[in-house]
Amino acid sequence: MRLVSLFSGCGGMDYGFIQAGYEIVFANDFDSDAQRVYNLNFGAHIDCRDIRDVTTSEIPDCEILTAGFPCQPFSNAGNRKGVADERGNLYKECFRIVENKKPMVVVFENVRGFLSTKDENGNKLVDTIEDIFESLNYTVSYKLVICSDYQVPQNRYRVIMVAIRKDLGKKFVFPELVPKDGLEVGNIIDLPNDISGQVDWQLSPQAKMLIEYIPEGGSWKDIPYEVLPERFKKIRDNMKKYRSPNFYRRFARTEINGTITASAQPENCGILHPLENRRYTVREIARFQSFPDSFEFIFDSVKDIVGMYKVVGNAVPPRLAETFGNAIKQQVFL
Which of 25, 38, 178, 207 might form a disulfide with 46, Cβ 3.0–4.6 angstroms? Predict the structure, then answer.
């Protein structure tokens, strides 16, 4: 089962599919931090070009193509520009390659906001993509999934779209949900001291001051009003207007953590350790994303450390990818 991987990131999707028995024959990503981590862990050189510069003749034939095309244009944590952001149209590059290679299966992964994004003609982008698959003779199934339903210790919402070539006469059936046993924060951050990657990106002085007021399981709502920065006071004064944001969420050890984002900022994700006044380490967030402790990261500088938070936050959880890789194998390739 030869797999072509587009927008591969640091390799979360690829790692999961490898565990499910697939062979990566081509991988591409434009981000330099992701490239370095990918090469470190897979012993293979990822294609580093902009995908728009890669001709279809340079890509090997394959049975399956996967793509986690850029999610920032569609993300609630970003600016939600959608296809107005040039990255929001990179899905068209996937179809250029699908049309030429005609893989048996195509897998797209994206954020929840992808479902409500409009294309340049004002139509729902997900409907447009489904129509393109239909025109290329693929049968499409897609669903908004919660990663914790598939043994990823994080309540991370993602859209998974699986398209199967029509001549195979199959429609993908989503795998059954798995019990959430052992996914609580306390289990995930309980790791031996000798595991690498236990490096954290230092919080700003203001953030360090604020989190001292937040108990385990709490958020910015626990911070005394008089201590809040002026911009937070403005939001607190009119919570309804600002849709009651839950900044500086500090998940308790008995909870399942929320989404880890690429920015790793306490204002937009639960990145705070439940007991210590710091961000989670890179290894801790990698565990929340279900990367194995053997997966390596790069820490040569502060810039590298920030980059590691970015690539882990952008990654497809390997355990999620493995689950879907196995389901596709059972339904299509066996």
Answer: 38
